[in-house]
Amino acid sequence: MEMKLRYARGISYSQLYNDGSDTVDGLLEDELPTSESVLWLTYIGNLKVNMTISQSEYNIICPLLFELDSDLQNRIVRFMGPIGQPTDQYIDLPPLLKTVEYLLNHSNSLRKDLTKEDKGRLFKAYLIFCDEFLIHENDFVNLKFNSADGMLRHYMPFALKMNKFYRVVDPLIELPKSKLFLIDFPKKNSQFASYISTYLKAKNCQSPSLYMLQLFSLADSLLLNEQKTNVVKIAPESQCVICGFLDNFCVNLQNGSSVVNIQEYPLYKVSDDTYCVLYIKFFVNKFFHSLLFDMAKELEKQKILGTKGVAAYVQLKQLVGQKFIEQYLFYNVVNRVLVSPKYKKVTGEQLSKIEQGLPDYYARKANRVFIFEFQGYTVECKDNRVQ
Fold it and tell me: Are residues 179 and 267 in the same domain?
């Protein structure tokens, strides 16, 4: 099988300024309003995320040209050339988000509208970060793609590094897990029924279904809105439930961390009722995690958890892992696979009453024996190219 590498042009500072000497610090050292700068850059990123299959990046860069100063406009147009290619890349999410992180690490409280010159400086800073992510054409001489193994060896570190930005995410993936946790599981476990009831009462929310409806409607509206906006304003009747939940995600409300991490905190709080989604895929990924974090804070406030010297979130996460994920989800999966009544099945919970250290699930049918060990683990990364 013939292995052929295809590559596309990517815009960057070095592509536009052959002898340029700008630096990110130099471009952004004069005070730019953090809030307006973050809103503008993340809106551009959101346009990229919401591109349809019939669109190319020309649908983003062409209107954007009219927001930039004339010198930068002309340089980008010359780079495009008389005939543009649909594979040309003008908006690259990793360097764009790195530019946002730089602004957040050097944040200020200045508020003003951005001028064309301000936007030009922001875009040039983004272009400088683009150079870190580009592989230049002459570098391909040293790459050998004469076999599938050779391609994987060079491509996989790059693919893994980009996976967190480009993987497919959908709030509907979190929907069944949240439904099982908030609605189905409490019917089987009185301890978590009490936890969830306490949490929802503190949020003035009448039911788990209503709570889920508000959260997932918010995520869907962000992904599917026709205006492609990444800024959401919470209605007054929903603020009690939603705002406290969203505050857990906000990068500008985290006082304990010195380094900004927008993968962990993918929202920026603009005002009391308005939030900017820095990157929608990071936001969706944090849904279930933030639900547990928000619940732990409320249970700690009510002195239900966190009273024995262990953080409430740590306690809750351990209980969720044991009671919900292992003893509820895992057992249900096994029971749905081994459906025959001829199976003799014993759960790990039952086995632990006999002796510690026994399997997490045991099943036997005639002379066939199945032993299950439920294990959560992480894979060690030994290649710094994917970190």
Answer: yes
